[in-house]
Amino acid sequence: MRRERKRIPNFLRKYRRLIGYSQKAVAKKLHQKSTAIISRWEKGLTMPSAQNLLKLSRLYKVLPQQLYYELDREIVRELNPGAPETMERKFKGSDP
């Protein structure tokens, strides 16, 4: 029986398209041999390494937190239970 994995929500595809790059162009800039890894990241099946996340952030001209906004919000809530979500308010103007 195949187990369904929870997908990691992200805005990688949105920001890639906004900047006008194809998956092939991004793969080339990140020195990837194929677009398969870019596709898996965008579908939320896997996450880029920290280094590739920073590269994507620079390439798309956004903060890493904006690429993985939902995950960032979960982390803020987990680290600061009951506290106001100041990071959420900080990025609210840049919601994707």
CATH C-level name: Mainly Alpha
Oligomeric description of these chains? single chain
Distance between the termini: 36 Å
CATH superfamily: lambda repressor-like DNA-binding domains
Helix content: 55-70%
Counting helices, strands and paired strands, the structural category is mainly alpha
What is the count of structural domains? 1
CATH architectural group: Orthogonal Bundle
The total of helices stands at 7
User: Mean pLDDT score, rounded?
Assistant: 89
| Alpha-carbon Rg, integer | 15 Å
What proportion strand? under 5%
Largest sheet, in brief, is: none
Q: Would you give the CATH topology? A: 434 Repressor (Amino-terminal Domain)
Number of strands: 0
The H-and-E topology, N to C, reads as HHHHHHH
Stretches where pLDDT falls below 50 for ≥5 residues? none
Tell me the overall shape.
globular
Detailed description of the structure:
The protein has 96 residues and is mainly alpha-helical. Helix content is 57%, strand content 0%. The chain is built from seven helices and no strands. The protein has helices at 12-19, 23-29, 36-43, 50-60, 64-67, 69-79, 86-91.
Write the layout of secondary structure elements.
Blueprint: H1 12-19, H2 23-29, H3 36-43, H4 50-60, H5 64-67, H6 69-79, H7 86-91
